[in-house]
Design a protein that fits this description.
Elements: E1 4-7, H1 13-20, E2 24-26, H2 35-42, E3 48-51, H3 58-61, E4 69-72, H4 82-87, E5 91-93, H5 100-115, H6 118-126, E6 147-151, H7 155-168, E7 171-175, H8 181-187, E8 189-191, H9 194-200, E9 203-206, H10 220-225, E10 231-234, H11 243-251, E11 257-260, E12 279-281, H12 290-308
Parallel strand pairs: 1-2, 1-3, 3-4, 4-5, 6-7, 6-9, 7-8, 9-10, 10-11, 11-12
Helix pairs in contact: 5-7
This protein binds (2R)-2,3-dihydroxypropanoic acid.
Length: 319
């Protein structure tokens, strides 16, 4: 009997076809009613789950008796209960590497977009306001030659640092668990404690995974340490920042601005951030390019097939 795969998001038709060559594939569809109900009904039959952005732990998976693998179409895996999956012998895989450059591009878009107030001035222009010369109060700030502080110099952090150093002549500071001498040499980057980074950077870019150590890493105290002229960029996970503290800092002009791709609750349909001109807000699109989502889908399918065929998947997350 063929094994069954239940897909819960980010599944492309090509991906589904590839999986159907080997397995039964169930894809909940809005045409068939409530997606959660369909997902929950199919769960007891599933040997594999594939998708992204769904919280999966003991509460959600108690009926998934046949489950062997969860193949996440994402690099981050903070929404899965890794301890629980491992205890039950369920493999968890992710899709690292293939989204590094597109996420770094997005981080840089947020740096440039916030510095030059792109979204704000686009809306201003389209509203027909350009009847006179721009006032100094509407000017942005330079990026070239400034100091870029990277919190978390992993793959994506290094790709952001490379753009900053080589493309924009920026001074690179970074903080994290351990210094990375090889990158220090290549990028002229300097390892500093987080507080020193916050006090000196013109742009603070958050690129850390979400875990118990990084939850609310940036709160009121850390925002107070930043320069009033500095911009905070977050492409990691929303809960790395205390969003209420950030909103207060932006409302009071204690920092210049924020470029955000991620939020404490997602999706986010209403927020005080939306009425703040100094907040540039995007809907979690770090990896959302045609090429990257395709590469992520391929990698997730590859991991799924390896796991269900009894091989060690390339991107196994469990210890
Ligand atoms: C990831 O893959 O974790 C990125 O946040 C894109 O969703």
């Amino acid at each position: 009997m063929k094994k069954t795969i239940l897909a819960f998001s980010r599944i492309t038709p090509a991906m589904a076809d590839r999986l159907r060559e080997h397995y039964e594939v169930i894809i909940p569809s809005p045409a068939l009613g409530n997606l959660n109900t369909q997902f929950e009904k199919a769960l007891p039959e599933a040997h594999g789950l594939i998708g992204a952005g769904r919280k999966l732990g003991s509460k959600q998976l108690c009926t998934a008796e046949r489950l062997e693998v969860v193949s996440s179409v994402s690099v981050g895996y903070d929404n899965y209960d890794l301890g629980y999956l491992t205890e039950r012998g369920i493999m968890l895989t992710n899709t690292p590497d293939v989204l590094t450059e597109s996420t770094a591009d997005l981080a840089f878009s947020l740096i440039l977009g916030s510095a030059r107030r792109i979204a704000e001035l686009d809306a201003w222009t389209k509203a027909g306001n350009w009847t006179r010369t721009l006032e100094a109060a509407q000017f942005g700030c330079d990026v070239f030659g400034k100091t870029l502080g990277i919190v978390g110099l992993g793959n994506i952090g290094s790709a952001v640092a490379r753009r900053g150093r080589l493309g924009f002549g920026m001074n690179i500071l970074y903080s994290g668990n351990t210094p990375k001498p090889e990158l220090e040499h290549a990028l002229d980057a300097r390892f500093v404690p987080l507080d020193e980074l916050l006090a000196n950077a013109d742009f603070v870019c958050l690129v850390v995974p979400l875990n118990a150590n990084t939850r609310h890493l940036i709160g009121e105290r850390e925002l107070q340490l930043m320069k009033p002229s500095a911009i905070l960029v977050n492409v990691s996970r929303g809960p790395v920042v205390d969003e209420q503290a950030l909103i207060a800092a932006l409302e009071q002009g204690r920092i210049r601005g924020a470029g955000l791709d991620v939020y404490e609750r997602e999706p986010l349909s209403a927020s005080p951030l939306f009425s703040l001109p100094n907040a540039l807000t995007l809907p979690h699109i770090g990896s959302a390019t045609d090429e990257t989502r395709l590469a992520m889908a391929d990698r997730a399918v590859e991991n799924m097939i390896a796991a269900l065929e009894g091989h060690r998947p390339r991107d196994l997350v469990n210890p």
